Structure formats: C-alpha cells, structure tokens
C-alpha cells in the first residue's frame, strides 16, 4: 500500500466565470505536482483559458478580463496535457469546487478520467478535531495558521502554491498520526469523481 508520504498528488486551483461548476467556465488553471510532502515546482502547469463568455462580476475577484484571455487556449486545447498530468495522482484543492468544475469541463469533452480528490479544508477540520481545537479553516486562516507569508491571492498559480504548502504541513501531521492513504482519502473527501 502506498504511504501518504510517497503518494503522487496534483494540487489544483482554478479561477472561473462563476461558482456553478456545471455551467460556469474555467478562465485560469494551475497544477502543482507533489510526491509525498515534496512540492515539485519545476513541473508546475499554468494556463489562462478562453471561455465562451466572461462574466463581468467575476473579474473583480480574479482580475482576468477579456483582453487577458482573448489569445488564451480553449479548455479543449489543454485537456489532454491536463489529463496526462492528473491521471495516476490524487487531486488536492482547497474546496470541492475546483475538482467539480474540472470534472464538468472534462465531461463536456467526453474525456474519461478517474479522480480521487482531497479537500485541505476537510483535512484541517479532521486535524483540529484530533487536536481538540476549533478554528477558522478558510484559506486566509490556514495561511496564517501555517505561518505562510501572504503576498498575492486569487491567482490560480499563487493559490495552488499556498494549497500545496498547507497540504505539505498537513501531510507531516497526518503521518505522525499514522494515517494511511485510504484513510486520507476518506478524511479529505466524501466522494470520488468519475469523469467521462
């Protein structure tokens, strides 16, 4: 059985046109690979993505406007590269949303990909209960808790990096508690995504 400190993970973050994973579109995506608690920054992937329609209200959150995505590839142009990066790894994100919208985009292209997903906020909730404490598990709270220097947020690549750093520290704690990979999948996620 693969140990949590030797498993392959793909930390993802997306910026999107809205918060409906079935209807909204990705406008930026970042993937940072990890092997156990080791972050492999040299193999990261980042791309802006040209949506069919960009909603004005989403721009105030991620700052990605029509000009920024006008020459970006459509999702279908990067889908096979993403599939290659993600397959045979466990997806890690801050919330379920990133994995769900990614699932939706692959489904629209009828690309089959089985994804185990871990939500670091769920992992933190488990760790907090284990340690008998209650605290805020939003991204800002986690960045502060793990003493990370917040320089820039709401960029897919920056947020994927923060997520990777938080997960790195969580993995060390989980290993100390003797958590197995199967247990980690249960702790960090309640559902398995099948994409086609």
TrEMBL record:
GO terms for biological process: DNA replication. Residues 8-176 form the Exonuclease domain. GO terms for cellular component: cytosol. The keyword Cell wall biogenesis/degradation does not apply. Gene3D superfamilies: Ribonuclease H-like superfamily/Ribonuclease H. Keywords: Exonuclease, Hydrolase, Nuclease. It comes from the Archaea. InterPro entries: DnaQ, Ribonucl_H, RNaseH-like_sf, RNaseH_sf. This is DNA polymerase III, epsilon subunit.
């Amino acid at each position: 059985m693969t140990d949590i400190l030797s498993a392959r993970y793909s930390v993802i973050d997306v910026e999107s046109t809205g918060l409906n994973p079935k209807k909204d579109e990705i406008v930026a995506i970042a993937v940072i690979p990890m092997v156990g608690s080791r972050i492999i920054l040299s193999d990261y992937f980042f791309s802006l993505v040209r949506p069919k329609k960009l909603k004005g209200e989403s721009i105030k959150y991620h700052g990605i406007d029509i000009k920024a995505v006008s020459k970006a590839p459509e999702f279908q142009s990067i889908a096979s590269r993403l599939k290659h990066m993600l397959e045979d790894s466990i997806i890690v994100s801050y919330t379920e949303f990133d994995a769900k919208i990614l699932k939706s985009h692959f489904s629209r292209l009828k690309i089959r990909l089985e994804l185990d997903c871990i939500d670091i906020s769920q992992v933190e909730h488990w760790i907090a209960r284990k340690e008998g404490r209650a605290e805020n598990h939003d991204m800002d709270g986690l960045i502060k808790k793990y003493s990370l220097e917040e320089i820039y947020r709401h960029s897919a690549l920056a947020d994927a990096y923060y997520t990777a750093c938080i997960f790195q520290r969580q993995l060390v704690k989980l290993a100390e508690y003797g958590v197995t990979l199967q247990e980690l999948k249960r702790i960090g996620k309640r559902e398995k995504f099948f994409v086609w």
